[in-house]
Here is the input.
Amino acid sequence: MVLDIVLIVIGIVFLLVGLAGCILPVLPGPPISYVGLLMLHFTRAHQFSSKFLLLWAGIAIVVTVIDNVIPVYGTKRYGGSKKAIWGSVIGLIIGLFAFPPFGIIIGPFVGAVVGELIDGKETGDALRSGFGAFMGFLGGTILKLITSGLMTFYFFKELIIK
Here is the structure.
């Protein structure tokens, strides 16, 4: 009984950290949220089926891979260079700490624009690449939030209904 409570609390912590990881670039949100589901599964009173756990493991992996591809795709789709991609990542990290919470949104855009300007692109092209980087970041973040949010829903559904 005490072990079950400890596992449930640890699971909730993993879910919260996983949700934060959907926004913070250094934490892989969906895989961390998945560990939260596993914590509940390891209790005696609350179990998920093997099929359910394998499905969500696959989803967490696929979403994490896609999240690493979407910003690059968005930047390239709008004509961005490697410097725009790196600028987007650096802008996200700087924005996260320098201007929370708005820096998370503005940072990738500004970073991509600065990267393109350093690469010698015209202002219009740089702004277009910045928009692509922003859209890629936004798409990946929304996908991760939906995934981790659904895992959190299933965790509490299982916890409360049983």
